[in-house]
Amino acid sequence: MQEIFSGNEAIARGAHEAGVRVASAYPGTPSTEILENIIQYKEIDASWAPNEKVALEVGIGASFGGGRALVAMKHVGVNVAADPLFTLSYTGVNGGLLLVVADDPEMHSSQNEQDSRNYAKFAKVPMLEPADSRECKEFTRLAFELSERYDTPVMLRSTTRISHGKSIVELKEPVTGLPAPKLVRNAAKLVMLPGNAKVRHPLVEERMAKLSRDGAALPFNRLELRDTRMGVITSGVCYQYVREVLPGASTLKLGMVHPLPHDLIREFAAKVDRLYVVEELDPFIEEQIKAMGIAVTGKEILPICGELTPGRIRKAFGLPSAETSAMEKLPGRPPNMCPGCPHRGVFFALNQLKAYVTGDIGCYTLGFLPPLSAMDTCICMGASIGNATGVVKVVGEEERKKVVAVIGDSTFLHTGINGLMDMVYNNAPATVVILDNRITAMTGRQENPASGFTLMDEPAQRIDFPLLCKALGVKHIRVVNPLDLEETRRVLQEEMERPEPSVIITDKPCVLIKREGVFTKGPVYQVNAEQCTGCRACLKIGCPAIEWQPGEGKKGKAFIDPLLCTGCDVCRQLCKFDAIGRSK
Amino acid sequence: MSDQITNILLVGVGGQGILLASEILSETFMLAGFDVKKSEIHGMSQRGGSVVSHVRYGREVFSPIVPEGEGDILFGFELMETCRALPLLKKGGKVVANDLRIPPPSVLMGQETYPDGLADRIRSQFPDLLLVDGQHLAMEAGNPRVANTVLLGAVSKRIDIAETYWLSALEKLVPKKALEVNRKAFMLGRDL
Ligand SMILES: Cc1ncc(C[n+]2csc(CCOP(=O)(O)OP(=O)(O)O)c2C)c(N)n1
């Protein structure tokens, strides 16, 4: 049977066909849909972990218990999961373990474009790189055999174009006859104290050397001879671009990008006149080939920054591109917080108070954009609180009152909680705002430990934020309704003045939550055109439901789109002329 | 089958239903026996930003994205986004666009105005433009929400694939209770 699958759907299907028992992940574009699709295969226990490190640790446990395990994350998630990964490389596995990592060249939805292949080399684990959905499924399936045969975790690297691209996939039946999981003790292999680890490290080196030697025989790498004047070594989606742009060239398509198959590379290099590497981001393959003493052209002609496209490759090889029509000068269309978003009022208040906002990652990062323009830093998930602590340590007393960390519920539980522990422990007088919208919104509304449900849609224990903060030792904890501008501003101001750590928790759900009883749309609002003076105060919150209508010769007026308004009431509070009210 | 690849671009604003439309296109091409690839960016773009989806079909398709300036058909869900995507289209490419304006934030806030005369600007470079009043025709089909399907019908007329494949794809991907109104909307678009 054939289906059109995205790379992520195909990876989920591959896990099903491979007999995976446990899947754990933390959401992150472009990897999120892997777990969202895996839940259709009921034999797999799939869950959201609070962060990537925990997700990998759950996977490791499942593997040690004898079950096959899949763990998924976006590229920056591997930074968080790196600690267990590096030692897992030493222990190896019991049931096969696959770590899927989705890179984001071009940073379509990320804060950096780090190249995960470096992690495979650094942690000394094999890495597969599929070039379309068919390979996503096949490689996922094969990865578990590879993992068990070589006693190693395996990484599978995807990129945005692979994860979110769709192509045709042939479905197969799941494997049968896998051994039943049970407790097996093997301390010498699984307890990584120095004495045991010293024994394991040489085995890791042997394993990687063997994988490199076996590279020609393994079903991942493919040598395709066409015109031998030009040979291109490539992998992933770049293989597709090369076939499109340089259809006559010979290719060595690498499906395993670490370790590299040295013999196959030598054989290919000997057969072609000029050798090129076409790879996205770092010169990862290129540098290793150069270290083998083989002349090759790569980043001299191709960019390191951003993703490759057929057009960019054409340009690099000096080939003519199609003629394109002139680019029109048009207003831009950046993303925006939704109408009724509970984050909006908080950023409006922070802007008015001229706060120095250490930011974090989530929908609320859009508070950086005008007209709210209330974010001064944003590094990585969980960074806001530590950043605020650091800032207040160095600035003077008056400036320290301006410092506010803002962090979403999911991000706080991911890695923010440690920052708060530090802020309290070391008594840093900054204010933290936990934006609790009861969901991980940015990545498409995933449940989390504070949302009350699991990935499998079962009711779950909900974290009580005020109680948690109290347990961490926070003395000043306030809960506010972020749709009440006056209250939000007043509480923020009071806590910013306070020379002690304090936490403000906002308590309104994301407007996109579909589950019954969480978010309910209120009666919509309208502008009374007679009372509207055209002062534009309501435009300062940047709500997509409010439109400025220039008057023909007269003064312009605001208009509220009844189809978009959620009845949040925030704009009404801004109108000094009582021109905004509920529609009758 | 020739080696010819057909390149289709779908553009509009996040939340307009572009992904479903591009799924229906891809499914149709697969059912008709072609190789198909499709690519788009989810994520940030869902929060009201610009969205571009690429669909390609032929005997064998490599790249999932349409090379710059090689689009055969531009399927625009919103006028300004249609205009923004013109450089992706080849000379003489076809455009089917919804006659709909969605103001971006700068226009909502009164800092910029929504540009005038976009349809004429498109037509001056790409004379093969079909401007569709999707909202109006959707009402005629019986539901204001099926404007995309009307447009899809209009696009289908410009692609050489038998009607039965289109209808089967609709049947597979549209929820059962909305199928009849979508079928009606599709045929309205196809008859334009
Ligand atoms: C280490 C890491 N993992 C995952 C992501 C992807 N990501 C960005 S924001 C976000 C979640 C934000 O949720 P929350 O903090 O609740 O804020 P909301 O979007 O709901 O406002 C995730 C998972 C990331 N950027 N970094």
UniProtKB/TrEMBL annotation, chain A:
| Residue ranges of domain 4Fe-4S ferredoxin-type in the record | 523-551, 556-584
InterPro entries in the cross-refs? 4Fe4S_Fe-S-bd, HACL1-like, IorA, Pyrv_Fd/Flavodoxin_OxRdtase_N, THDP-binding, TPP_enzyme_TPP-bd, Transketo_C/PFOR_II
Cofactor annotation comment: Binds 2 [4Fe-4S] clusters. In this family the first cluster has a non-standard and varying [4Fe-4S] binding motif CX(2)CX(2)CX(4-5)CP.
Q: Which cofactor does it need?
A: [4Fe-4S] cluster
> Gene3D superfamilies from the entry?
3.30.70.20, 3.40.50.970
Task: List, alphabetically, the PROSITE patterns matched.
Answer: 4FE4S_FER_2 (PS51379)
What EC identifiers does the entry list? 1.2.7.8
Question: Per its record, what are the GO molecular function terms?
Answer: indolepyruvate ferredoxin oxidoreductase activity
> Per the record, what are the reactions this protein catalyses?
indole-3-pyruvate + 2 oxidized [2Fe-2S]-[ferredoxin] + CoA = (indol-3-yl)acetyl-CoA + 2 reduced [2Fe-2S]-[ferredoxin] + CO2 + H(+)
Per its UniProt record, what CDD domains does this chain match? Answer: TPP_IOR_alpha (cd02008), TPP_PYR_PFOR_IOR-alpha_like (cd07034)
Q: Which keywords describe this protein according to UniProt?
A: 4Fe-4S, Electron transport, Iron, Iron-sulfur, Metal-binding, Oxidoreductase, Transport
Which enzyme type, at the first EC level? Answer: oxidoreductase
Q: NCBIfam families, from UniProt?
A: IOR_alpha (TIGR03336)
Q: So what does this one do?
A: Catalyzes the ferredoxin-dependent oxidative decarboxylation of arylpyruvates.
Subunit structure, interactors included? Heterodimer of the IorA and IorB subunits.
Protein name per its UniProtKB record: Indolepyruvate oxidoreductase subunit IorA
Q: Which organism is it from?
A: Geomobilimonas luticola
TrEMBL record, chain B:
Matching SUPFAM superfamilies: Pyruvate-ferredoxin oxidoreductase, PFOR, domain III (SSF53323)
Record keywords: Oxidoreductase
Q: Which domain of life is it from?
A: Bacteria
What are the residue boundaries of the Pyruvate/ketoisovalerate oxidoreductase catalytic domain, all occurrences included?
A: 14-190
Q: What is this protein called?
A: Indolepyruvate oxidoreductase subunit beta
